[in-house]
Amino acid sequence: MWSVSNPSPNGPASHPDLQATRIVVLGGGPGGYEAALVARRLGADVTVVEQEGLGGAAVLTDVVPSKTLIAAAEWMSSTERAPALGIRLGGTPGSDAPAASVDLAAVNQRVLALAAAQSADIRARLEREGVRVVLGAGRLDGPRRVVVPAGPGAGEREQTFDADAVLVAVGATPRELPTAVPDGERILTWKQLYNLQTLPEKLVVVGSGVTGAEFAGAYRALGAEVTLVSSRDRVLPGEDADAAELLENVFTARGMEVLSRSRAEAAERTADGVRVTLADGRVVEGSHVLVAVGAVPATAGIGLEEAGVALTPSGHVVVDKVSRTSARGVYAAGDCTGVLPLASVAAMQGRIAVHHVLGDAVHPLNLQTVAANIFTAPEIATVGKSEAALRASGSKYVTATLPLARNPRAKMLGMRDGFVKLFAHPEAHVVLGGVIVSPRASELIFPVTLAVAHRLTVDDVAEAFTVYPSLSGSIAEVARMLHQPLD
Ligand SMILES: Cc1cc2nc3c(=O)[nH]c(=O)nc-3n(C[C@H](O)[C@H](O)[C@H](O)COP(=O)(O)OP(=O)(O)OC[C@H]3O[C@@H](n4cnc5c(N)ncnc54)[C@H](O)[C@@H]3O)c2cc1C
């Protein structure tokens, strides 16, 4: 058994004592490994316990694989613009042969290799920095002890790690419907998609949140027939309504079938495919079904409640803005907290936790400046206050929108679908938030993030030079539309 006594159990250590501060991190995803690196840099003794692979679901099954797959889909989508640019792709003029086709086995091989390599890099980096990496499924034994039972990969004997602080960053797993149990072949979670060797003839995607929309768009671009089953009025409920409407129109124009207000109740295998039954009795047939109906926190059975850690009814760990749980010495970060399921937020929560544990300067989590992106084609990037939040809180705001089709660079590039929208305070003129719908919106949103984070006014943004011609020129142009002349 590996065990250490606990020299400083009473909260934050002052700087000279940091060597003595032992932090055990449960879960090696972005919530865990980023925190581990920061804690090591600050001199703490750090152990990361991880049951699958370093980098977590973010690297192995979620962010990295999906965005790598989407890179292939994006290449296919960009070929749509070829005729407008005067480029003829594929076979002979007038032939119906597809411009390009996808070797899904090769795409998925690249996806999995890239994810595995990134996971290995993260493990190597942690070890190089002096973080103790322990493979195995850990659980809390009280608030300041983590136990890793013996098991495959975890060693022959149970290991015990005493800690001054434990950071719980165990993430979440796909929510499964009892009436649509994944079989890994035809009824799939997003983690199982990368085993496909050939493109599904017809993929039924259940769930039109971010994950469902990203995969539906990607598989359509790769050449599959796709039906997107959405229980809500439109795709991407909760996102900017104009962006969601635009995306749904683009999906439909690309030949995707979008079934709104259609709750899927069950999915079962047929002789050569799947049958999805909707709540109103309709049946959707396909070759495969992807069930993307959210995630559940991986917090069950790991000793949290016994250690005094309060959970919500959904099983998420309750945390404050410096990642403290209800149990002294136990912190939590990432998807298991349900605060905002993004890798960037998980990493920030984890870093905040270790700064707090180690008595370093702490900036409480501020979600007002989180930039997020939906990797569809076009992408949808957002930052700051949404229009729905501004309306719901009764805040005063002004807004302006410029369609991408009016941007000179977009015209040259043959891009049509998208817009730039900003929200600003009508008196202080401060930029409150923004939405960019465009190819590579994830890259374009940064100036708006800077404006929101640093409380810049629309005039500050409007007066900065942009390259001519450039897509970012639209951001300055929208800021100019919001300029208020002096009285
Ligand atoms: C398809 C998909 C695409 C996404 N794309 C993006 C994106 O583009 N950008 C973005 O910011 N976010 C994206 N997300 C969200 C992002 O994946 C999560 O927010 C992020 O992974 C959360 O990090 P985490 O550290 O909390 O959890 P995870 O990354 O899930 O890591 C948790 C780790 O804990 C381990 N673990 C669990 N229980 C134990 C235990 N008892 N003992 C030891 N180890 C344990 C797990 O094995 C796992 O490795 C996406 C999510 C999905 C589903």
TrEMBL record:
Q: What does the Swiss-Prot or TrEMBL cofactor note state?
A: Binds 1 FAD per subunit.
Q: Which residues bind FAD?
A: 67, 138, 335
Positions annotated to bind NAD(+): 207-214, 294
- Where the record annotates domain FAD/NAD(P)-binding, the positions are 22-350
Q: Does the keyword GTP-binding apply?
A: no
Q: Which Pfam families match?
A: Pyr_redox_2, Pyr_redox_dim
Annotated signal sequence is none
Q: What class of enzyme is it?
A: oxidoreductase
Swiss-Prot/TrEMBL cofactor(s): FAD
State the EC number(s).
1.6.5.2
Please verify whether the record's keywords include Oxidoreductase: yes
Report the InterPro entries cross-referenced here. Answer: FAD/NAD-bd_sf, FAD/NAD-binding_dom, FAD/NAD-linked_Rdtase_dimer_sf, Pyr_nuc-diS_OxRdtase, Pyr_nucl-diS_OxRdtase_dimer
**A single MF term (Gene Ontology):** flavin adenine dinucleotide binding
Q: Which PANTHER family match?
A: MERCURIC REDUCTASE (PTHR43014), NAD(P)H DEHYDROGENASE (QUINONE) (PTHR43014:SF1)
Q: Which family does it belong to?
A: Belongs to the class-I pyridine nucleotide-disulfide oxidoreductase family.
Under NCBIfam families, the record lists: PRK07845.1
Q: What is this protein called?
A: NAD(P)H dehydrogenase (quinone)
Q: Which species expresses this protein natively?
A: Luteimicrobium subarcticum
